Amino acid sequence: MVASSLIALATCVALAAACAPHDNVTEFKVRMLVTNVPGDPLVDVPISLAGKTLARTGKDGYANLTLLGREGMRAGLRVECPPNHRQPVELTSVGLYAYAAAAEPEVRAICEQLQVSQGIVVRSVGAANLPFEIRGQRAGSTDESGIAHVLAVGEPGETIDVLFDTSERADLQPANPSVRVLLGNHDDVALADQRFEQKELPRKAKKLGRTAKKPLTPARQDGPVRIR
């Protein structure tokens, strides 16, 4: 009861200059959901009002709040997003109104990630065991089936180029292509797919040496030779 009274007092101070005893003060129940961008619940996130922590979210991402004030007032709730998440720019505003029995208003706050981990499936279709680079560094090589898996970390909205190295494969077209991958606003998986064609390399011509022609020698005849 003491903790509830402190929370109620803090709420009254935040909603108005003060909640005087003669004011028509009522308790209002509010459910607040805190998630990341894909909608996954965030656990143990503090919800505060006027610098006082009212509750923390549970495993389902919900926090049950009891706000004390007059009907029609609005409360500005602050969400303390977990590490590697961006704080909402504005407070989450909720109005205090009388609802039907067992009907509690629900508000939602979203915490965006500052950095995301992007799993990248690299495919070199038509070319096996092909090395590739990411951010100017050797990141791996595709296997016999032309597939590799890498993990990239960066800011949401950042672009990453997967550069295939064909310097040792003159028979492949295109030469040294790159595939651009866009990092989303949450941890996810992307595909860097590049198709190759094999071209026929010109065959080396065989060097054929020329044989010097021998002068023709008339066949020698047996017996006397006629002289004209």
> What distance separates the N and C termini?
149 Å
Radius of gyration: 39 Å
The CATH top-level class label of the largest domain = Mainly Beta
Helix fraction by DSSP (H/I, runs of at least 4)? under 10%
Ranges with pLDDT <50 over ≥5 residues?
Answer: 1-11, 223-228
- Average pLDDT value? 83
Percentage of residues in DSSP E strands: 35-45%
Q: What is CATH's topology name of the largest domain? A: Immunoglobulin-like
**Quaternary structure annotation:** single chain
Q: Record the strand order, biggest sheet.
A: 3-2-5-7
Task: Supply the key terms.
mainly beta; Immunoglobulin-like; four-stranded antiparallel sheet; rod-shaped; disordered C terminus
Strand-helix topology:
Elements: H1 2-15, E1 26-35, E2 46-49, E3 52-56, E4 62-69, E5 74-79, E6 85-86, E7 92-95, E8 106-110, E9 112-113, E10 116-125, E11 131-134, E12 137-141, E13 147-154, E14 159-164, E15 172-173, E16 178-182, E17 188-195, E18 197-198
Parallel strand pairs: 1-8, 10-17
Antiparallel strand pairs: 1-4, 2-3, 2-5, 5-7, 6-9, 10-13, 11-12, 11-14, 14-16, 15-18
Write a structural description.
Helices cover about 5% and strands about 40% of the residues. It is mainly beta and about 230 residues long. It has two domains: about 1-115, Carboxypeptidase-like, regulatory domain (Immunoglobulin-like, Sandwich), CATH 2.60.40.1120; about 115-200, Sandwich (Immunoglobulin-like). Strands 3-2-5-7 form a four-stranded antiparallel beta sheet. Strand 2 and strand 3 form a beta hairpin. The protein is rod-shaped, with a radius of gyration of 39 Å. The N and C termini lie far apart (about 150 Å).
